[in-house]
Every structure is written in structure tokens, then in C-alpha cells.
Amino acid sequence: MLQWFDLDQLSHVLDTQEPILNVCSEPILCKDIVQEFAPELLDQLDYSQKGEFCNLHPYGYTQAEIFNSMKIYLNTLHKKEL
């Protein structure tokens, strides 16, 4: 489980006057990312490795927002390959 940040938002974050700002997303399972973007690879995941978990409320982004950013990024990469 990881927390993500859309780097396209970096300039906004750097310009904010907030002394403390949580820019991480809600925790997202890597399995959920693979299921969304490459379901054919699900059987290749190793579920035996566990990491540390830290719950940083409030979240800066939802899973849906992060997935939308990933879709935009992946579509941009795909267009460059064509």
C-alpha cells in the first residue's frame, strides 16, 4: 500500500502559503493499481511482502483522483510511442 502524489500539482503546492500541507493520497493498494491498469499481471504480484503503514489524514487526493492522473499520464506515454 502506497500513497501517491500527482507531480503536475507540484507548482500549486510550492506556491501555497500553508505552513503544513499533506499532499499524499489516501493509501492505495498496488493490487488496485494493477487491477485498474494491467489486470493481466495480477497473478505476478507477490503478496508476501508487507510494508509499514502510516495513516496521514486528511488526504490530499482520493484514489479516484490519483487513478485519473495515472490514466492521463499513461495515455500521454502511449501517444508518444505512436
Write up this protein:
With 82 residues, this protein is mainly alpha-helical. It has one domain (7-81). Helix content is 40%, strand content 0%. The chain has three helices and no strands. It has helices spanning 10-15, 30-37, 63-81. The longest helix has 19 residues, at 63-81. The radius of gyration is 15 Å and the shape is flat. The termini are far apart.
Calculate Rg over CA atoms.
Answer: 15 Å
How many DSSP H or I helices?
3
Fraction of residues in H or I helices? 40-55%
Domain module count: 1
Q: What is the succession of H and E elements?
A: HHH
**What class, by secondary structure content?**
mainly alpha
Globally, the shape reads flat
Beta-strand share of residues: under 5%
- Point out poorly predicted stretches: none
Query: Major sheet, described briefly?
Result: none
Q: What is the CA-CA span between the terminal residues?
A: 32 Å
What is the overall pLDDT average? 83
According to DSSP, the number of beta strands is 0
Quick overview:
The chain is mainly alpha-helical and 82 residues long. It contains three helices and no strands.
